[in-house]
Amino acid sequence: MDVRYIDSEGDFEDARALIQGLRRVALDCEAAGFHRYDDRLSLVQLTAGPVTLLLDPFTLPLGDLLGPIVEARDIEVVMHGADYDVRLLDRDLGLTLRGLFDTQIAAALLGYSALGLSSLLEDHFGIRLSKKYQRADWAQRPLPGEMLEYAATDTLHLERLAELLRDELREKGRLHWAEEEFQELEKVRFDRPDPEQDPVTRVKHARKLEPRQVDRLREALDWRDAIARERDRAHFRVVGDPVLVSVAQNGVRSVRELADLQGMNGGLARGEGEALIERLERVEKLPDEALTGYPAAPRTGGRGRPTPEEEARMARIKDARNRRAKELGIDRGTLFPNAFLEKVAEEEPDSLETLSELPGIRAWQVEAVGEALLDSLRT
């Protein structure tokens, strides 16, 4: 296994020479969100024939290196479960992927029940991948040799797996299904978080809190965010949401009370807790009419509860979808998600053409299950 860690200008030029003229590569990305304040791109693995390059985005202009490959329609880029990687490439390198072959999508369309890369490699090639560094901190430097070896295995066998799955897709007449899904995934872009979103809406059960408790929670979340940003740590590694909900519910009045809360890091409470106590005290002084509370849900303009007729149609088309999925040996949700069934029940298309015009529905889905759905609507 020829694995090269590329983090210097000289090595970078060697890497550029190695990948020139290639018609196919295997690609994977590692991010740091499990450990760091943000999930920045921290390592890119690229297998080109017999060589695997581990590329450091902290020291190299990877957009310049990868752009001519991943943005070229005539160069195939093999990935596994590429949805988030596509977003990372867009956000951190400004790259738009083309020529994708996603082995996870291919396996799903073939009806495999276990879609993880480790399962697929073991089933097809008897190769067992280690999970030791699945949640490692890929932003640390230097990266230990064991982590680099682990990272290399993510792309080492992808090209061979893609060939095997492509043959299976072709045999079943589903290659064009997969190609349509690949092209749809290539359109995905990083969805930047709304800076105006109230942080309490991201916390489980916050909606059930009383207004003053919600305001305490909002202050606690802001306090944690400032610490996480300063220390470059993921929020939950500073203190978990359940602890802050407890702070909000109980109205902690001293650093000692804060330190005694179950799940609270005592050192954090003693070192940073005074600032939180001051924030909570300001909330306590607010009159009821000055409290913000939990934000009101926006008006969605939805139609509300489905009518009995729609529910009956939904049951019929779901049964038709389930029967067709069983015939094809494919997961029901992969074949036609429930959200699409709801659209069909609501709109009642009367032809394959009108079915295909519903938002989000793929041409291959119309081909695979369209007639069955329309028949169920006619009964």
Short description:
With 379 residues, this protein is an alpha/beta fold.
CATH class of the largest domain: Alpha Beta
Strand content: 5-15%
User: Order of strands across the biggest sheet?
Assistant: 1-4-3-2-5-6
Work out the helicity level: 40-55%
Describe this structure in words.
This protein is an alpha/beta fold. The protein folds into three domains: 2-186, Nucleotidyltransferase, domain 5, CATH 3.30.420.10; 199-290, DNA polymerase, domain 1; 308-378, DNA polymerase, domain 1, CATH 1.10.150.80. It has 18 helices and six strands. It has helices spanning 9-19, 62-70, 83-93, 103-109, 117-125, 145-156, 158-171, 175-186, 211-231, 235-238, 241-250, 255-260, 266-284, 308-328, 332-335, 338-347, 352-356, 363-378; strands at residues 2-6, 24-31, 41-48, 51-55, 76-79, 100-102. The chain has a six-stranded mixed beta sheet with strand order 1-4-3-2-5-6, sandwiched between helices. β3 (41-48) and β4 form a beta hairpin. α9 (211-231) packs across α11 (241-250), α14 (308-328) packs across α16 and α14 packs across α18. The longest helix has 21 residues, at 211-231. The chain is flat. 33% of the residues are buried. The mean pLDDT is 93.
